[in-house]
Write a structure and sequence with these properties.
This protein is of the alpha/beta class. It has one domain: Vaccinia Virus protein VP39 (Rossmann fold, 3-Layer(aba) Sandwich). It has seven helices and seven strands; from the N terminus they run ααβαβαββαβαβαβ. The longest helix has 19 residues.
Length: 241
C-alpha cells in the first residue's frame, strides 16, 4: 500500500485548486489585506524577496515591481522568488509573469525551501502558513534562507482568535493548524526570531447588503470577520545568524 506524504497531499489538493482557477481568484480575495502588509515591508530596489506559498503568483508580481531598479540603474534590480508545493500553480504563475525579468518560480516545500542560506532580505507568506504540516521545520527553514537582519511577514486569515475562520477547518480537504496569536508569537521566539510582533489587518473591502455564500449566516457576520481581520506576524532574523 502506497503511503502519501503530507506534502504530496498538499500538492494534489492545490493542483486541483489551480485547475479550477482558484489561484487567480486569490488576488481578489486577499489583495485588500495584503497591500497594507507590502507597505509595511518597506521594499526597495535591489531587495531579494521570497514569496512562500505563492500560488498563481499575484503577490509575487506585486513584490517584483516594487524591488525593480530604475531603468538607469538596472544592475540594482531586485529579485523575487515564488515557491509553492503545487507544480500546476507554479506553471500558471510562470505563464502569467513573462513580462517580469526579476521573478523566478520554483516548486518546493516550506520544509525544504529551494534556496541557499542567508539570501533573502524579506519574506512574505500570504494565507498559506497554516497549511504547512510541520510549522517548526518551516520556521527553521525560513530562518536558514533569510539574510541576517532579514524580516519575515506571515499573513493568515485562519487562526484561533477569529472564530469565524475556524468554520473552514472541517471543510478543507487537508489538515490545518489553528493556533492563537499568542501561540504563534511564542512559536516564532522559540525558533530564534527576534523583534516578534503581531498585528491585526482588517479587510476594508465592501460587504454586500445581502450575503449569499456558504461561510457566514448573514452580511453582518461577514463584516465582523473582516473587522477582526487577518493576523500578521512580523519577526527578524538575528544579525549574528
Amino acid at each position: 500500500m502506497t503511503t502519501i506524504t503530507p506534502d504530496e497531499k498538499l500538492q494534489l489538493e492545490f493542483n486541483r485548486w489551480a485547475e479550477e482557477g482558484r489561484g487567480e481568484e486569490m488576488e481578489r480575495h486577499h489583495l485588500p489585506i495584503t497591500e497594507p502588509v507590502v507597505r509595511m515591508m518597506a521594499l526597495k530596489p535591489g531587495d531579494r524577496v521570497l514569496d512562500l506559498g505563492c500560488g498563481a503568483g499575484w503577490a509575487t508580481r506585486l513584490l517584483a515591481r516594487m524591488v525593480a531598479a530604475e531603468k538607469s540603474n538596472a544592475h540594482n534590480d531586485g529579485l523575487v522568488l515564488g515557491v509553492d508545493i503545487s507544480d500546476e500553480m507554479i506553471r500558471r504563475a510562470t505563464e502569467n509573469s513573462r513580462d517580469l525579468s526579476n521573478v523566478r518560480y520554483l516548486v518546493g516545500s516550506a520544509e525544504q525551501i529551494p534556496s541557499e542560506a542567508n539570501f533573502f532580505h524579506k519574506v512574505l507568506s500570504v494565507e498559506s502558513f497554516y497549511y504547512y504540516p510541520d510549522q517548526d521545520r518551516a520556521l527553521d527553514e525560513l530562518r536558514r534562507v533569510m539574510a541576517p537582519g532579514g524580516r519575515l511577514f506571515i499573513l493568515i486569515n485562519l487562526y484561533a482568535d477569529n472564530p469565524y475562520s475556524l468554520r473552514w477547518v472541517e471543510e478543507l480537504q487537508v489538515p490545518v493548524h489553528a493556533r492563537s496569536q499568542q501561540e504563534y508569537v511564542e512559536l516564532l521566539r522559540s525558533h530564534g526570531f527576534e523583534n516578534v510582533e503581531a498585528h491585526r489587518i482588517p479587510d476594508p473591502s465592501p460587504t454586500p447588503e445581502e450575503y449569499t455564500g456558504k461561510w457566514f449566516r448573514n452580511a453582518e457576520e461577514l463584516r465582523e470577520f473582516k473587522r477582526i481581520g487577518a493576523l500578521l506576524l512580523v519577526a527578524s532574523k538575528r544579525t549574528s545568524g
